[in-house]
């Protein structure tokens, strides 16, 4: 019950903060709120695989980066008026957000299908290492493929367009991102109550028992892994749009680690865990960053303390250990 | 492409494989005995490299640098095992991943704080600098050849240690049934700390040896760590023999891929396109090798089938 109250507080608090920043004319604060929302979206993607599916993926930066590059590649072609593909089918670049989102969802979903189909042949610690390795594969590929900036990344001069809105206005862009987060959270919440979500939970808790009642864990896990990758890919496209920049660092293993940190900091398998985690992460960055250039040391110590002593994350501390459903 | 060039690249592949083995052996031992996945293994590699660079710079002795690397990495390993990791053996892998990720942050920023962001340099000792003529008129770096020698010697010593000493018996018993060997009167805590410090020392040694070829800097450990994961996935978790075979396969595939793939693409593409396609594909070659092994044997070449 208390968790619901805190969820409501989070879901109302962040947009209210952004609106306050709009009134107080603090565009940087709106950008921070947008960043929180996007990182929360990326974390929500991972939380689906991690919390519901029990799949500890250390390679979600691959999907985040693929989403980012989907935006970067399409927008850079639109910017330079060169077709993406010449020949029998001409594919033009675009700066329309809905098209970019669709492409980011499809491409990151396909990547998740390929990575998932291979990685799910194994489990446990193998799965962690393999997803990490696949993430690194995309990272090195992006660095050594010179067509789209290689190591330097791609800059986009103007934020992409959404019909009827001025996306360069921070508050309007924030509202687009926030709408996505709410839609995805509703989707995830209804998914976890659906027969699919229940079967997935069963498969996580006891694969053998699930199998004996006729549930095939592999298919469920692959499906949830693909959904998870798509959500994180969408977040990547939005993140690239926020910065108007995409580079291989979005694909790096540190990014995978950080996405996981949002999930754990907030609380695994809790609906608003990634949102709470991303919020705390950005707060720490803003508060500790100016104090010391080496603020990651403090982040590391806090993370260690949470893993060792507070296993439900921030939400677990505030809302208590008991979860509504396991 | 001359024979000398190919031979040189094969040796380079073996050399990078040997370094990967030093990393992978520690990881696989720690996982086999304690069931711990340790992301901070790359930090121990970095600690070894920094300890060697600083010691060699102050004393002027490369050998003392190596000793310092072994000691510093073993000490750092024992410290984090006793203080933190010991509490995680019974936890699930997610907690282990996070705690060791937190340790990476602490180690990396701590080293950056102490030594700054600029790389340190560790010079190759003068006795080992320059090249050596191998049979067949193949010139090769003396230092890299020594590195291969050290790696093979460590592999042999590790094999003897695990197969023929009392500690090795305990390690193998610990992999099979930890409650039973505790019941038989083995001090399991001390065994775990010893195994962890041993793995850490190997990582530190690898860091120091590689530090003389590359620059010594923060973040140098993680790329090697991830390659070592690929090695373990290929070789099979817990198997030292698997780590050895996997490390050589990965080292050779990576080096020879970089040599041959651009040349292969040049056969049917024009210059710059072939170079970029070749380099992009060769950066992926070891992961494709991993995929191939996964499809044929999901638990690795030497992994147990359970």
Q: Topology, please?
A:
The complex is a heterodimer of chains A (326) and B (306).
Chain A lengths: L1 H22 L3 H26 L8 H20 L2 E3 L5 E2 L4 H23 L4 H21 L9 E2 L14 H24 L1 H11 L1 H6 L4 H27 L1 E2 L6 H14 L6 H19 L3 H15 L3 H7 L7
Antiparallel strand pairs in A: 1-2, 3-4
Chain B lengths: L2 H32 L6 H19 L2 H22 L9 H23 L15 E4 L3 E4 H23 L1 H11 L1 H6 L4 H24 L9 H15 L4 H27 L4 H26 L10
Antiparallel strand pairs in B: 1-2
Helix pairs in contact in B: 1-5, 1-6, 1-8, 1-9, 1-10, 2-3, 2-8, 2-9, 3-8, 5-6, 9-10, 9-11, 10-11
Structure summarized in a few sentences:
The complex is a heterodimer of chains A (326) and B (306). Chain A has one domain (2-319): ABC transporter involved in vitamin B12 uptake, BtuC (Orthogonal Bundle). Chain A is built from 13 helices and four strands.
Question: What would you say this structure looks like, in words?
Answer:
- The complex is a heterodimer of chains A (326) and B (306).
- Chain A is mostly helical and 326 residues long.
- Chain A has one domain: Orthogonal Bundle (ABC transporter involved in vitamin B12 uptake, BtuC), CATH 1.10.3470.
- In chain A, 72% of the residues lie in helices and 3% in strands.
- Chain A is built from 13 helices and four strands.
- Chain A has helices spanning 2-23, 27-52, 61-80, 97-119, 124-144, 170-193, 195-205, 207-212, 217-243, 253-266, 273-291, 295-309, 313-319, and strands at 83-85, 91-92, 154-155, 245-246.
- In chain A, the strands form two sheets. In chain A, strands 1-2 form a two-stranded antiparallel sheet.
- In chain A, α1 runs antiparallel to α6 and α2 (27-52) packs across α10.
- The longest helix of chain A is centred in the C-terminal third of the chain and has 27 residues, at 217-243.
- Chain A is globular, with a radius of gyration of 20 Å.
- In chain A, 52% of the residues are buried.
- The model of chain A has no long low-confidence stretch (mean pLDDT 89).
- Chain B is mainly α and 306 residues long.
- Chain B has a single domain, classed as ABC transporter involved in vitamin B12 uptake, BtuC, CATH 1.10.3470.
- Helices cover 75% and strands 3% of the residues of chain B.
- Chain B has eleven helices and two strands; from the N terminus they run ααααββααααααα.
- Chain B has helices spanning 3-34, 41-59, 62-83, 93-115, 142-164, 166-176, 178-183, 188-211, 221-235, 240-266, 271-296; strands at 131-134, 138-141.
- In chain B, strands 1-2 form a two-stranded antiparallel ribbon.
- In chain B, a hairpin with a 3-residue loop joins β1 and β2 (138-141).
- The model of chain B has no long low-confidence stretch (mean pLDDT 89).
- The interface between A and B is large, with 42 and 44 residues.
């Amino acid at each position: 019950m208390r968790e619901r109250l805190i969820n409501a507080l989070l879901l109302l608090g962040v947009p209210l903060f952004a609106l306050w920043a709009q009134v107080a004319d603090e565009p940087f604060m709106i950008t921070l709120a947008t960043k929180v929302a996007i990182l929360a979206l990326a974390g929500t993607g991972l939380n689906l695989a991690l919390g519901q599916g029990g799949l500890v993926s250390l390679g979600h930066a691959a999907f985040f980066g693929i989403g980012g590059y989907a935006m970067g590649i399409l927008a850079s072609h639109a910017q330079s008026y060169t077709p993406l593909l010449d020949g029998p089918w001409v594919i033009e670049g675009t700066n329309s957000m809905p098209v970019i989102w669709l492409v980011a969802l499809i491409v990151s979903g396909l990547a998740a299908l390929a990575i998932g189909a291979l990685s799910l042949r194994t489990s446990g610690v193998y799965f962690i290492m393999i997803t990490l390795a696949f993430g690194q594969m995309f990272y090195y590929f992006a660095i050594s493929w010179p067509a789209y900036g290689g190591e330097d990344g791609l800059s986009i001069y103007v934020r992409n367009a959404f019909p009827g809105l001025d996306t360069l206005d921070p508050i309007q862009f924030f509202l687009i991102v926030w709408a996505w987060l709410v839609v995805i959270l509703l989707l995830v919440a209804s998914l976890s109550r659906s027969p699919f979500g229940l079967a997935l939970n069963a498969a996580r808790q006891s694969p053998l028992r699930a199998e004996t009642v006729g549930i095939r864990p592999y298919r469920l896990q692959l499906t949830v892994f693909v959904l998870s990758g798509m959500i994180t890919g969408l977040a990547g496209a939005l993140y690239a749009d926020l910065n108007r920049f995409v580079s291989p660092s979005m694909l790096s293993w540190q990014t995978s680690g950080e996405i996981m940190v949002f999930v754990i900091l907030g609380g695994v398998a809790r609906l608003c865990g990634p949102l709470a985690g991303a919020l705390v992460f950005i707060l720490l960055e803003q508060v500790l960053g100016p104090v010391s250039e080496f603020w990651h040391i403090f982040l590391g110590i806090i993370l260690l303390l949470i893993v060792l002593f507070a296993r439900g994350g921030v939400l677990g501390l505030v809302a208590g250990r008991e979860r509504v459903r396991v | 492409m001359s024979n000398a060039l190919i031979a040189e690249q094969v040796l380079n592949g073996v050399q990078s494989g040997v370094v990967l083995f030093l990393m992978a052996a520690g990881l696989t031992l720690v996982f086999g005995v304690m069931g711990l996945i340790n992301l901070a293994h790359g930090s121990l590699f970095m600690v070894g490299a920094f300890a060697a660079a600083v010691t060699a710079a102050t004393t002027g002795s490369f050998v003392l640098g190596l000793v310092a690397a072994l000691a510093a990495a073993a000490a750092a390993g024992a410290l984090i095992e006793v203080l933190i990791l010991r509490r995680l053996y019974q936890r699930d892998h997610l907690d282990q991943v996070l705690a060791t990720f937190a340790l990476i942050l602490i180690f990396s920023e701590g080293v950056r704080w102490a030594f700054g962001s600029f790389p340190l340099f560790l010079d190759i000792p003068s006795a080992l600098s320059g090249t050596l003529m191998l049979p067949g008129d193949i010139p090769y770096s003396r230092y890299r050849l020594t590195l291969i020698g050290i790696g093979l010697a460590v592999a042999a010593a590790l094999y003897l240690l695990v197969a023929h000493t009392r500690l090795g018996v305990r390690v193998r018993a610990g992999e099979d049934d930890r409650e039973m060997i505790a019941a038989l009167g083995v001090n399991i805590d001390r065994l775990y700390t010893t195994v962890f410090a041993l793995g850490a020392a190997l990582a530190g040694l690898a860091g120091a040896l590689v530090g003389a070829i590359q620059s010594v800097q923060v973040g140098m450990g993680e790329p090697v760590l991830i390659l070592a994961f690929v090695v373990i996935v290929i070789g099979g978790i817990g198997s030292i023999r698997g780590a050895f075979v996997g490390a050589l396969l990965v080292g050779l595939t990576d080096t020879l891929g970089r040599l041959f793939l651009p040349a292969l693409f040049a056969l049917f593409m024009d210059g710059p396109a072939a170079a970029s396609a070749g380099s992009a594909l060769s950066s992926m070659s070891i992961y494709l090798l991993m995929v191939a092994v996964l499809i044929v044997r999901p638990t690795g070449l030497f992994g147990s089938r359970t």
